[in-house]
Amino acid sequence: MGRMDPRKCKKSDDDVVAIIQRYSEKANAFTIGKKNLIITTNDMTLIFGLGGGKGAMSLRYSKNPNMPFLKRRFPKETRLTGPVLKKTNNRKSSDKKTNNRKSSDKKTNNRKSSDKKTNNRKSSDKKTNNRKSSDKKTNNRKSSDKKTNNRKSSDKKTNNRKSSDKKTNNRKSSDKKTNNRKSSDKKTNNRKSSDKKTNNRKSSDKKTNNRKSSDKKTNNRKSSDKKTNNRKSSDKKTNNRKSSDKKTNNRKSSDKKTNNRKSSDKKTNNRKSSDKKTNNRKSSDKKTNNRKSSDKKTNNRKSSDKKTNNRKSSDKKTNNRKSSDKKTNNRKSSDKKTNNRKSSDKKTNNRKSSDKKTNNRKSSDKKTNNRKSSDKKTNNRKSRSYNNFK
């Protein structure tokens, strides 16, 4: 580490000496913290307020020239004094407060908009459920109407059959008709019993569906409660962070005040030293003491850096916890999706089974119709033979 004699510096401030002492010849850069930074001449002019160039810098005690740094940052001022720096710091703190208020207002507005969206989604879901229920009722009515029409048509056919049997057949045919009627009544009774069973199955399916819908609603309510609790916890954390940030800002402001006082004291001491050139030995002792104080300041800065690093590590831990919570929530949502898929697969299988039953019923109905047609043919043959016999 290259060390420079403070007597060769014009200002001989502790901060300037500490920065210059950070230069390492091996890395050809300044070691600040854990990084090696290359500082250019432009950076030096901005940090120290000195004029860069190839010309030699005058070290005489005279009024400092107006630098471009002052013209850019403080166009109305000719010198950097303590009151000027206090005003700038107060302005910056007030601007930070206004920005924090605006950000908090934006967060509250975003929360309100998200709540409105959730309410609109719930209302739309209710409307869709009501529409589905109305569609189910209309479909049930249509199916009942179809069944009544089929029964009426079957009744008409049976009446036509009865009238034709009365005209063509004699007493024997009437006895046969009565027997056939009894058998048809048995079949109709069997069909009615099967229809009752199907209706009971449908009612049980409706009950199970209603239970599932109620379970889904309760789960949705629980999830919404969890989200609100998570929001409250996040709000508490943000408030705690803001309070800690305010404390740190207050500490920094107090440190700045003490530094300004020290700088004013240094200026007065420098003025006295210009009059007391004979007391060089005492001034050298003071400079050594200043070096010790600068070392203390550097140690204090290191301790503050450690504290900030510890805070960052705690923030990382909280972020990791949030990410783990998000992963668990995603797993739960995926499990819900798989359960919904299974329920849909069960419904499709039940539909297929019901379709098979309806197909079997149709096939049985076809067989009964074929038997009736064969019976008609036999009756026609008998009537023909009877007519021929006459």
Summarize the structure.
The protein has 390 residues and is mostly helical. It has helices spanning 14-21, 41-48, 68-73, 82-168, 171-275, 280-389; strands at 23-24, 29-32, 35-37. The protein has a domain at 81-168.
SSE blueprint and pairings:
Blueprint lengths: L13 H8 L1 E2 L4 E4 L2 E3 L3 H8 L19 H6 L8 H87 L2 H105 L4 H110 L1
Antiparallel strand pairs: 1-2, 2-3
Helix pairs in contact: 4-5
Report on this structure:
The chain has 390 residues and is mostly helical. It has a domain at 81-168. The chain is built from six helices and three strands, in the order H-E-E-E-H-H-H-H-H. The chain has helices at 14-21, 41-48, 68-73, 82-168, 171-275, 280-389, and strands at 23-24, 29-32, 35-37. Strands 1-2-3 form a three-stranded antiparallel sheet. A hairpin with a 2-residue loop joins strand 2 (29-32) and strand 3. Helix 4 packs antiparallel against helix 5 (171-275). The protein is rod-shaped. 0% of the residues are buried.
